[in-house]
Structure formats: structure tokens, C-alpha cells
Amino acid sequence: MVFISDQAKNKLFSLMKEEGLSKNNSFVRLGVKKGGGCSSLSYELTFDQKKKKEDKLFQHEEMKILVDENSFPYLEGTTLEYSGGLNGKGFYFINPKAKHTCGCGKSFSS
Q1: What strand order describes the sheet that includes 107-109?
Q2: Range 16-45 average pLDDT
């Protein structure tokens, strides 16, 4: 299971609306890319309108989340958070499987 905080969910819905995407037929895609960032693995966050056969689908209230089968072992139990304001980080991941996280919060090692 992966989770999205209410603040992150609200921001994602706002961004979907700005991009002309409907929350009824759009997904938030969370993934991991190997060889990225300063900690060897980097997070990916995008919108998608198609579910692939190998995707795992999660739903948090009306938010539909896709995670590809290769990324899922790295992201299981992860929560996507959002912090705005002057000292805000934007989107960031709280990942219980990350042994080391880069200072920017965009990459990790497991």
C-alpha cells in the first residue's frame, strides 16, 4: 500500500485541474528510477491517464494512485506529503524503506 496525505492530495487535484485533467479518469503515478539523484534511487511523480497491466492500483478517497511493479518494493508503505509556504519543500516522500535520504528529499538508497 502507498498513501497520500490530505495536503498532497489537495495540491495534486489543484495541479490536475490546472492541466485540464479530470480526477475521474486520471491517475497519479508514483515510481522509482534507478541511477538517479545523489543516493542512487530517485522518486518519480507524474500524472497518467492509462493503467498498464503491470501497474498496482491504490485508491485514497477519490485519488487513484498507480505504482509499477518494479517500483512497488521500494515504495510499499510510503506516504507522499506536501508542504507549501516560505519554507515549504513541495512534494516529498516519507519512505520507511529508505536507509538514507538525500538532503533535497528527491533521492534515497535502500
Answers
A1: 55-60, 63-68, 27-34, 41-48, 107-109, 100-101
A2: 86
- pTM for this entry: 0.83
Q: Is residue 110 scored above 70 in pLDDT? A: no
Paired sense of beta strands 107-109 and 100-101, if any: antiparallel
Quote the CA–CA distance of 21 and 64 in Å, as a whole number. 13
Q: If you write DSSP's letter for every residue of 46-100 in order, what string do you get?
A: EEES---TTEEEEEETTEEEEEETTTHHHHTT-EEEEE-STT--EEEEE-TT-SE
Cα angle for residues 79, 76, 46 (degrees, 5° grid): 60
Q: Dihedral through CA 62, CA 13, CA 24, CA 6, nearest 10?
A: 0
What's the pLDDT at 100?
Answer: 55
